[in-house]
Specification:
single chain, about 120 residues, mainly alpha, 5 helices
């Protein structure tokens, strides 16, 4: 667990920093900053629209007497994706957008569900 946390809080930010420096060197500092700011802004808009859609779908599921488990997982993915988009960086933006767009979110959800089931089988 310590190795995973070390990776999460040191290696990924260093990789992000290196990538931002390299992109800034190639296309320029201000354009790089603009891209990061624009992806954050677009991410907030996309997270909001996807979040509203998930809430609407959750209400529909509840009205039909079903537990909205898939929609709850969608909501968690959208929340995490929005948090990644608010974090400055290009890799985190890429992962954040992949959690917000349903086409890419669904395969990620399948992997997460498999990991959760595996964790519960171990316990």
């Amino acid at each position: 667990m310590l190795v995973k946390l070390l990776f999460l809080f040191t290696v990924i930010p260093l990789l992000e920093l290196w990538l931002l420096i390299e992109v800034g060197r190639i296309i320029g500092t201000w354009l790089t900053i603009s891209i990061v700011a624009l992806t954050g802004f677009l991410g907030v808009l996309l997270a909001r629209s996807q979040g509203v859609r998930v809430l609407f779908n959750m209400r529909a599921e509840l009205r039909q007497g079903r537990l909205p488990t898939d929609e709850l997982l969608n909501g968690v993915c959208i929340l995490v994706g929005g948090a990644f988009l608010l974090t400055p960086g290009l890799l985190t933006d890429l992962f954040g957008f992949s959690l917000l767009i349903p086409l890419t979110r669904n395969p990620i959800k399948k992997v997460v569900v498999r990991l959760i089931r595996k964790m519960f089988k171990v316990i």
